[in-house]
Every structure is written in C-alpha cells, then in structure tokens.
Amino acid sequence: MRYIEQTVKYLKNKGFENPEVGIILGTGLGKLLNEVNIIAEVSYNHIPNFPTATVEFHKGHLIFGELADKKVVIMQGRFHLYEGYTLQDVTFPVRIMHRLGIKKLLVSNASGAINPNFKKGELMMIDDHINLQGGSPLAFKGVSQYGERFVDMSEPYNKQICDKIEKIAEEKNIKLHKGVYASVVGPQLETRAEYRMLKIIGADAVGMSTVPEVIVANHLNLPVAAVSVLTDECNPDHLKPVDIKEIIAMAEKAEPDMIVLFKELIKAVEV
Length: 271
Fold this sequence. Notes:
Strand content: 15-25%
CATH superfamily: Nucleoside phosphorylase domain
Distance between the termini: 25 Å
Structural class: alpha/beta
Shape: globular
CATH architecture: 3-Layer(aba) Sandwich
Strand order of the largest sheet: 5-8-7-6-9
Largest sheet: 5 strands, mixed, barrel
Order of helices and strands: HEEEEHEEHEHEHEH
C-alpha cells in the first residue's frame, strides 16, 4: 500500500490529475498516441516502484492526456512474466491507474490466431480467457486489504463496454471476431502440439499478457474490455517459423482499425 501511495503522489505531482479511462497498448500499437493531446509523459524508469520495460519494442512511457474529450492515462508498453517480473509487478500499473481515478480500463494486445476462421490482420474482442500462466496476481499475503480475495470471474470482460465495441465495429465496417484468449508465459512461441492443445481446450487466440491485468481490474471492480490484434495464424498442420518483425508489422497493419474502435469507444463510454 505504501508503494502505491508513493507512486500515485509522484504522478499527481507530474500532472496526472483525475484520469477517467486507462489504456494499455500492446505490441505494435503505439500510433493511438497520435490522436492524444498529451499533457504529461513520464518514462517508467523515473516512476518510483514501477518496473522497467525490458522488451525492445515496448517503449516504456506512462502518458496522461485528452482523447475524445476524456482524460486518459496510457501505458505505452506493458510488463510480462517472461521478462522475469512477478505477477504483482506486471499488474502494479493497473492498481496505480485505478488509484489515480480511472473508471474504465481498455486493454490491447497482439496474439496468434488459433481459430482457423480467424486470419492475421483481423481483430478479436476478448469474450473470455484461459489463464495458463501458472499463477495469480492475487496470490499474495494481505491481498484482502486491496479488495475481495475470492474474486468472481463469471464475466471478466464488462458486457456493456463489449456491446459498445461490437456496435462501433458494425457501424464502422470493421471486421471484429469475438473469442477466448489463452495467456501463456512465453517468451518462446508454441509448439505444434501446444497449438493443438489450445484449440482442444477452447482457445481462439493465444498471447503472453492481458489476463493478469484483467484479473486485477476485476479485483478492483474496474470495468475492463480487451481487443487482440491477430498477428499470425497458428495452424499446427501448416506451421511456419514466425519472425517477430512480421508480427509487429502485422500489428501495425491492423492498428488503424484498433484506433477507430478505441477512439469511438472512449467517446461513447460513460465515466
């Protein structure tokens, strides 16, 4: 709790005042910032108690500004278990954004399509998830000081926000799938056998993030929604080696649709 107070105080002194919506930007999804009137920006390295982004294509800045007439705080770059952080480290920024005042959280990521009907370059709204990261961000002593220990996860992704996303996609003629996201540790990509297993257990897409952040959002009673950019197709019968540069390029290709979705959603969402 002391760490949270210290970090929040630092950010408020830097001008992070009363944000309404929090946004976590995933791999290759930084151009949303071109739509933001930036008021304050701080490097993760300078924020007390914050982890540091170690992935070269994750920028590592916390940004405060205005988007669609709402105050937003944006994570440009997130943290992952595969960087050597704990699940508490990975989700610390969600707790900070909540304490700063956000009323809604929007999450984006890049993921691999397991469902054969989903193609790379398309978007998938996450309707549910499977946690395969081998732990929980709520499994620590004193968690009940922050909220209910046994958090209900029957509807982890807020239905009202998800309905709005689907409506916007329809109005703007954006192809949007809906599906189940499986979160693994990484950083290695999956084997053919692992892709087959993921399909059998009901995953439509797979990635290495998002689920811990969503669990903590639910712990804080913070309405959350998430959209994946599908960057590669994970067909175990026709599996080709994946180049991370190709994944980032595919995320950038799909990014304009993601920007339209998030911008229109922020305009429409009530805070």
